[in-house]
């Protein structure tokens, strides 16, 4: 597997790293927020690596189902993390809409990856 990343990918990682350092600095002392930033970063990096592996394989390998499952799980994790932080600061009705959209997105992703012929 070729491990070279494009300049745009490297720039994206740099922006992610800078943003994460600033987010951790601003939330220092709040273990939940710091953990959320670190977990989201790890999930994003893993998601990028999974998508890269899928693209390099051309969608024809034996590992496609495992890669799709990993991509779906990581995107579901990120969606749930986002909703769990956004919904509580919204009015209750809007918070409910945030969770409904998160569930709909997760279900739609599952359908697209695994049930769509």
From TrEMBL:
Q: Which Pfam families match?
A: DUF6490
Coiled-coil ranges per UniProt: none
Q: Which domain of life is it from?
A: Eukaryota
Q: Does the keyword Membrane apply?
A: yes
- Key word RNA-binding present in the record? no
Q: Which UniProt keywords apply?
A: Membrane, Transmembrane, Transmembrane helix
Q: So where does this one cross the membrane?
A: 7-25, 31-49, 69-87, 93-115
**Cited PANTHER family:** OS05G0181300 PROTEIN, PGG DOMAIN-CONTAINING PROTEIN
Q: What is this protein called?
A: Uncharacterized protein
Q: Which organism is it from?
A: Miscanthus lutarioriparius
């Amino acid at each position: 597997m070729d491990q070279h990343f494009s300049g745009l990918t490297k720039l994206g990682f740099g922006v992610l790293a800078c943003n994460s350092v600033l987010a951790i600095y601003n939330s220092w002392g709040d273990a939940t927020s710091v953990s959320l930033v670190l977990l989201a970063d790890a999930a994003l990096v893993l998601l990028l690596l999974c998508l890269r592996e899928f693209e390099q394989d051309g969608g024809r390998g034996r590992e496609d189902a495992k890669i799709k499952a990993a991509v779906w799980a990581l995107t579901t994790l990120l969606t749930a993390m986002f909703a769990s932080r956004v919904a509580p600061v919204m009015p209750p009705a809007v918070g409910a809409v945030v969770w409904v959209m998160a569930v709909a997105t997760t279900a739609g992703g599952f359908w697209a990856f695994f049930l769509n012929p």
